[in-house]
Write a structure and sequence with these properties.
Helices cover 65% and strands 0% of the residues. The chain contains two helices and no strands. It starts with 8 loop residues before the first helix and ends in a 12-residue tail after the last helix.
């Protein structure tokens, strides 16, 4: 077991909640038979939006790209 610490409490809370929206979208994309390029686009753009949204709420932008 490896534990990672993070001092960005707002970022971890926001990313932990909103990542589920991207996960649901990825499941819908796979269920509809879209290819890997569509999934990659969804994940890439979703992470970009999460980082900007988190930054607007006072989070560190890099938290979205970590293990939050």
């Amino acid at each position: 077991l490896r534990v990672y610490g993070n001092h960005d409490l707002v970022g971890v809370e926001v990313m932990g909640a909103l990542k589920n929206i991207i996960a649901i979208g990825a499941g819908v994309s796979a269920g509809m038979g879209y290819g890997q390029n569509s999934l990659a686009m969804l994940l890439t753009r979703g992470l970009a939006e999460l980082s900007r949204f988190g930054e607007a709420l006072g989070a560190d932008r890099m938290t979205a790209l970590g293990l939050a």
